[in-house]
Amino acid sequence: MRATTIHAPFDMRVEDVPDPVVQEPTDVVLRVLRACICGSDLWAYRGEAARQPGQRIGHEFLGVVEAAGSDVTGFAVGDLVVAPFVWSDGTCEYCAEGLQTSCPRGGFWGSVGSDGGQGEAVRVPFADGTLVKLPADAASDDRLLTALLALSDVLGTGHHAALGAGVTKGSTVAVVGDGAVGLCGVLAARRLGAERIIALGRHTARTDIARAFGATDVVAERGEAAEAAVRELTGGQGAHVVIEAVGTEQSMRTAVAIARDGGSIGYVGVPHGSGTGLDLSVMFDRNIALRGGVAPVRAYIPELLPDVLAGTIDPSPVFDLTVGLDGVPAGYKAMDERTALKVLVKP
Ligand SMILES: [Zn+2]
Known about the structure:
Layout: E1 2-8, E2 11-16, E3 28-36, H1 41-45, E4 55-56, E5 61-68, E6 80-83, E7 86-87, H2 93-96, E8 107-108, E9 121-124, H3 127-130, E10 132-134, H4 142-149, H5 154-165, E11 172-176, H6 180-191, E12 196-200, H7 204-213, E13 217-219, H8 223-233, E14 239-244, H9 249-258, E15 259-267, H10 280-286, E16 289-292, H11 297-310, E17 321-324, H12 328-336, E18 343-346
Parallel strand pairs: 11-12, 11-14, 12-13, 14-15, 15-16, 17-18
Antiparallel strand pairs: 1-2, 1-4, 3-5, 3-9, 3-18, 5-6, 6-10, 7-8
């Protein structure tokens, strides 16, 4: 089969690799129908996250089961399924409490020895604890398939941030980050009943999506000017709830600055850079809470799936460029240069 591999920073290739086969009785082999490139894939692309030459890449995909091991009970050949961005056994105490990202037998797609999602097929370990079945007829609905793909990462991650921050009916929410996760944070906050959603961003194409997803206000300023603008919109108080979806020192500092005293921050931006941007003494003095982390999207898919199927929420607008497998290297370049928000891959 053909799959995307990373050889060095800015050196993505699409190569012939061995076909995945069932190795363990709990495995399935999945033919990929849709995959995509994630903002977090860019850290490897830019050389800020180490990878071995030739390592696979991609952690967001859905597709059709092509083979199943003898112990797989939840899925059969021909089933349409979506995969969360980590696999998990579904039987341990962490999986039981909905923290599949801490599953001791789990793993991250594209880690050494595993398949990545930006390819033609993937071996899925612990299929029963990992995959979620989708209605068969979704396979013929191109827009719906695209929306369903967001369940593998960005929609569940936006939801995790909104939950972590404590979004409730009537909340005033500010969202730091205008990438796909930040935009899905807007969607998740609206779904949870937020009354006011302030999106921080300066790219019209992205803030237009934020408005379509439910943002009531847009703040284009950055840094201290952003803080002043958010305070002006909130009667000088700041937002009860802040979603941080970038992971830089600057974005975390802004998140703290725009939060209301006694407010809370839900953070899902993959932390990178030397410091955190967090000043605990400021958070202490102002009673600002922080909650979040890597999102256990497997726990959220059953709850979010009906809303995506019903069209109550439609995250598909975050995908603004579509490529075939050969177009994946160019897709990375476009996302790195921010000429594309999120790239959809049709292998
Ligand atoms: Zn587990």
